[in-house]
Amino acid sequence: MIKKIKNVGFIGTGIIGLPMAKNLFDAGYKIHTFARNNKTHLKLKKAGLIVEKDLCKFYKSIDILILAVSDTIDVKNILTGKNGMANFHIKPSIVLDMSTICPIETIEISKFLKKYDISLVDAPVSGGEIGAINGNLSIMLGGDKKIIKKVMPLLKILGDKITHIGNSGAGQVAKACNQIIVAQTINAVSEAFMISDSFKVNKDNVRKALLGGFANSKILEIHGERMLKNSYKPGFKTKLHAKDLRIAKNISLKKKLSLKGTNLVNKNMNICNNSGHGEKDSSAYYLTIKKQK
């Protein structure tokens, strides 16, 4: 078991991953990155990060691996696949998975890695690009308490709301719950704006009024403003939210739960994603709702 984390490995340096890696670098950690796309190497080097092109050298150089990738299959390939980390002779003993993936698969991955003396902590985040940049993400943890204590100094750099939910997979369960609530709130704000439009009432004034009452939420504040300005620069892409809702729907099917609200937003987010809005912020969901009669 590692005594002190100094060298951090990072795979997944996108909209949320890169600012997280930068914040750790600024805090004094040596950050080693691995990216298949050569175009991203210059950007990573400019940020002060070390770019490793050889996986063997990458894993030898780090005390912990942090993942911030897109989907369950990506995590499985990196950790347990044919050329996965588990197969390397020298490797870190802790993986901090900050991706959003299926909790059922997370539990299985964790069991697999234990055979190789690797501890997996699932640590999905909420807060989008803004939260990643400012280091005030909400982080939901699943895993062993002793391991979480070891990684807590890193987590405190990345977030200001850090909650140990429970055993392996529990963090991903919490994230699925988060994505359901966020999506249904985006749906509610979209429908509220449609009512405003039907009466030709100023939506901006409606939003300002609602922000002062029980309807106040981060979604109404941030996503509502994006809808009003018709500005959908991604803080969190529609295609990723659609993926997260598919995870939530699959969980409901496997657990035999009837979640009508989840099914509704899953359907609409998929329509939004498949209508050319996949690279836009998930608040572009509003554009899909407006077209529905």
Give a verbal description of the structure.
The longest helix has 29 residues, at 170-198. This protein is α/β, with parallel strands linked by helices and 293 residues long. The chain folds into two domains: 7-168, Rossmann fold (3-Layer(aba) Sandwich), CATH 3.40.50; 173-291, N-(1-d-carboxylethyl)-l-norvaline Dehydrogenase, domain 2 (Orthogonal Bundle), CATH 1.10.1040.10. The radius of gyration is 20 Å and the shape is globular. It has 13 helices and nine strands. The model has no long low-confidence stretch (mean pLDDT 95).
Provide a brief overview of the structure:
This protein is of the alpha/beta class and 293 residues long.
The beta-strand count equals 9
The number of domains is: 2
CATH superfamily of the largest domain: NAD(P)-binding Rossmann-like Domain
Low-confidence region ranges: none
Q: State Rg.
A: 20 Å
Q: How many helices?
A: 13
> Main β-sheet, in a few words?
6 strands, parallel
Kindly state the mean pLDDT as a whole number? 95
CATH architecture label name of the largest domain: 3-Layer(aba) Sandwich
The assigned structural class equals alpha/beta
* Distance N to C terminus: 59 Å
Q: What order do the helices and strands follow?
A: EHEHEHEHEHEEHEHEHHHHHH
Sheet with the most strands: spatial strand order: 3-2-1-4-5-6
CATH third-tier fold name of the largest domain? Rossmann fold
Based on Cα principal axes, name the global outline: globular
